[in-house]
Amino acid sequence: MNENELTLAEAARNVQNFAATSLRRKIAQLEAEFISNENFSVETLCTNSNIDLTLLASALMMKRAAGQINEVVHAVGILLLLTHILEDGEIIESLSLGAGNTGRNFDLETNLRVAEFKFIDWRGGAEAIRQNTFFKDFYLLAESDTTKQRYLYVIGDRYPLKFLHGKRALKSVMSKDSGLAARFLALYGEQFAKVHEYYTYRKDRVQIIDVTAFIPDFANIFDSSEKTNR
C-alpha cells in the first residue's frame, strides 16, 4: 500500500479509526498490550489492531497535508477578518496569505496600515516556539520604516501580552534565528536583556488586537481544534 492508492478522505478515516476518541489513550493502551510479548504475539496484536502499511501510508499522507492546512487556516482567517478591520476608503496594497516566509514584508499592507496575523490558540504553558515567532513579528512591525499604523492580530491577547511583559531572556527568544539576533544586536547592542524591557520601549508602536472582538466564533473554533488535537 502506498499513498497513491489512497484518497485524503480514506487516509483521514484510517487515522481517525486508529486514534478512536483519544490518541493519547490509544497509545497508552498499545504500550500496555505489547509489553512482555514475543514476536508471534506482536504480529497478532498488530493484525488485531489494524496496524499495517495502509495505516502508515495514511498517517504520512495526513502529515504532509497538515502543512497545507496551516496555509488554509492562515489564508481563510485573514480573508474573513478583512471586512471587519478595513476602514472606509482603505485600499489593500499587498497581501500575503501563505503562512511563513512568503517574500513580502507583512501579511497585509494597505494605504493606512501594516499588519501581521498570528492564528495561534495560546494555552499558557511552555510555548517557546510560539513566543519566538510572535516576538519576531512584533519586532519587525515595531522597527519597520513606515509611518503607517502597525497591527499584530492574535486569537486572544492574554498570553501574548503576558509573554511580552515577562522576563524571558531575549537571547533565548532569538537563539534559533541568527539573522534576527544579528539585526537586533546591531540596532540595540546590550541595551535590552529581557523581553519586557524591549516591549516597554516599543509597545506604543504596535497595536496588539484580539480578533475575537470582531468574530467571537474564532475563539470557539480554535479552542475546539486544540481540544481535538490533544
Summarize the structure in words.
The protein has a 5-stranded mixed sheet with strand order 1-2-3-4-5. The relative contact order is 0.10. It has 2 domains: 3-64, no CATH class; 86-228, no CATH class. Helices cover 54% and strands 10% of the residues. It has helices spanning 8-19, 23-34, 39-48, 53-85, 128-143, 158-164, 170-173, 178-188, 195-202, 217-228; strands spanning 92-95, 108-110, 113-118, 149-154, 206-210. α1 (8-19) packs across α4. The longest helix is centred in the N-terminal third of the chain and has 33 residues, at 53-85. The chain is built from 10 helices and 5 strands. By secondary structure, the protein is an alpha/beta fold.
Radius of gyration: 22 Å
Instruction: Please indicate the count of domains.
Output: 2
Specify the number of helices: 10
Which range does the strand content fall in? 5-15%
Largest β sheet strand count, sense and barrel closure: 5 strands, mixed
Helix content: 40-55%
Q: If you average the pLDDT, what whole number results?
A: 88
- Widest sheet: strand order? 1-2-3-4-5
Secondary structure class reads: alpha/beta
Distance between the termini: 28 Å
Low-confidence stretches: none
Q: Which outline best applies?
A: elongated
Number of extended strands: 5
What pattern of helices and strands is seen along the backbone? HHHHEEEHEHHHHEH
